[in-house]
Amino acid sequence: MASFLYLLGRLAFRWRWCVALLWVAVLGAVGAGAALAPAAPDSSFSMPGTESQKAFDLLAQRYPGTTADGASAMVVFVAPSGQKVTASANKAAVEKAVAEVAGGTQVATAVNPFQAKAVSKDGTTAYSTVSYQAVAKNLTDSTKNTLTDAAQQARNAGLTVEIGGTALATQPAAGGASEGIGIMVAAVVLLVTFGSVAAAGLPLLTAIVSVGVGVAAITALGSTLGLASTTTTLAMMLGLAVGIDYAVLIISRYREERGNGHTPQEATARAVGTAGSSVVFAGLTVVIGLAGLSVVGVPTLTKMGLAAAGTVIIAVLVALTLVPALLGFWQRAVQPRAVRKAERKAKRRGVPAAHSATNPAQRRNGGARWGAFVLRRPLPVLLLAVVGLGVIAVPVTQLHLGTSGDEAKPTSTTERRAYDDLAKAFGAGFNGPLTIVVDAKGAADPKAAVTGITQKISATDGVVSVSAARFNKAGDTAVFSAVPATAPNDTRTTNLVHTLRDERSSITTGTGATYQVTGTTAINIDSAQKVQGALIPYLGIVVGLAFLLLMIVFRSVLVPLKAALGFLLSVLAALGSVVAVFQWGWLAELLGVHQTGPIMSLMPIFMVGIVFGLAMDYEVFLVSRMREAYVHGAQPKDAVVAGLRTSTRVVVAAALIMIAVFSGFIGADEAMIKMIGFGLAIAVLFDAFVVRLAIVPAAFALLGQKAWWIPRWLDRMLPKVDIEGEGLARRAAAAEHRDASEDGKGREDGEGWEDGERADHGSPARIH
Fold first, then answer.
1. Three-state SS for 743?
2. Could you tell me where the DSSP H helices lie in 138-230?
3. What is the pLDDT of residues 298-320, one digit of tens each?
4. Which residue in 8, 208, 478, 726 has the most C-beta neighbors within 10 A?
């Protein structure tokens, strides 16, 4: 592989104008496709195989033409202190407001609370349910203004009015201003790392191209493939992070090869041949983690994972082609300022520029000093890191999965205030009613069967009230609501759902009918259980595939095993941190978490998939340099120091960049995005700085030669993949021999070489 990528990098450097224009053309083409493509559908969240989803499917079949996905609003009216909403003046104000809302052009129904008995027992609060014929994003400004104006008129009459539901909900922003701050922090990290504006700007430029192509492609294919608009958020988040990191890796290797005395073209080719190999396999591990999300069986999650995986593939292609092409334009500009200054002085003195700079990889830098420290104390470093992550992971034992709604929004929003008013007036469970779908097709008397089931469910412990049943036109199916005594995310509500399902046979005995429990609360409960059930199989498949991939790359059994165990430590510690902040409330105010509660059902699976890929990124970046030093003759401990000397700066910079990018999403309004941003940022922190820079070198120091052990029979079975550049070393040796022969025939130095291709005279690497 190294030889193929070497040629690819050489060609991209030589034909840099063509490569750059090709990517500009690709970006323009997908951008035009995105602009012309129809809007992505409002695909509803589904959880195939669960009872709640089966009930929804039955509703769609038995109640044709219903607009279940239409927008809705819950208008809550609260009487002034000491008054009742049923007082004549207050009642008139409520009815006037409801009548005005009902006159809207997109309104399907607006229920009068006094006719529907939607008034609290103490008479202080009433609510009107408004249903719309269009989804929330398609509601016109006129429709929304009608709703808000009617509410304001009731407020002017002295009532407190709040509006819940989806009608006025805004589309959550991915990260807002904080995302821009994250990118700015990444730019500062790049500038400090490289000491060059060009070297700092190049990764940002190529990452923008990667994200631009990926997001535009998702938008262009959104309608065709049924991709929701939220699919782009994960793609953008990962595309920025890996796009910057992969470019950083190749640029760092280019600068190192330039320090070895190679010409710009040769340095670029070698950088792509060696660091590019690491990029390919790092990208593959990310793709495996994301594509593996399809194992969960949630269509939305599968589409998000595949779309993000596609963006990561684009980032890899950009790193292997556009980055070397841009290096051709900025051959000297990406070098540190001190190196450029030294080259200018050397040129004035007549010294060859290629030999004027010292190779930073040979200097004893912070990475080498850290490696020497770990080698002197490998066991204490290993134990301290493992125990520390283990302690941070303890809160994960209290992980409670669920889905937050309006209760997680800040109290400054009308949705949150409406939620609180309803909970205060009607009970904690009012905001999460259970929907009971009764299939009475086999009953001799459907109405009697539904009445019997309704009475028994009403008498069940934990059920506060049930609504009147609503039959379909055929009269064989009925729907009613059961209000729990506890809040939607309360474990007692989960137990109630299980009770209603477990006691189904006794409740329906003698009726000839059956029922299913669904509704938003039941869907959230089913989602959490499905994700928990899929987590272990998902881990097995993803870790197994990555184990095989890393075994092929590093020709070792213990290296991929250590990588997998390190990943588990970092992801468990990250999940523990998420539980501590979002469930227990530690540092919640600092991060803008307005309401603690359960962890989003999809959060663990997201964390495992994404963090796994990123963790393997750092593993490949770091261990490939150790492996490269080892196969070129270094002793195991010397290889550890060599790997840390050349990779620590890159890994630290890459980790800080990812942390900055992910932290930018903590500023999102959407709780799921906020949680993912925090979880990924803290996971990268643990994995890069604790696992890869502490546990990995300590484990290598303790294992020694055994770290690279692999059975001979297995070594023969595995395909040979060269990412350490052994093929390039042989190529360099052959080139040196050829150059020596040609020089013996009187060839002048540099004769026949094109710009940037002057012959290299560096000594070939020693192959072990």
1. helix
2. 141-156, 177-194, 197-225
3. 888 888 888 889 999 999 999 99
4. 478
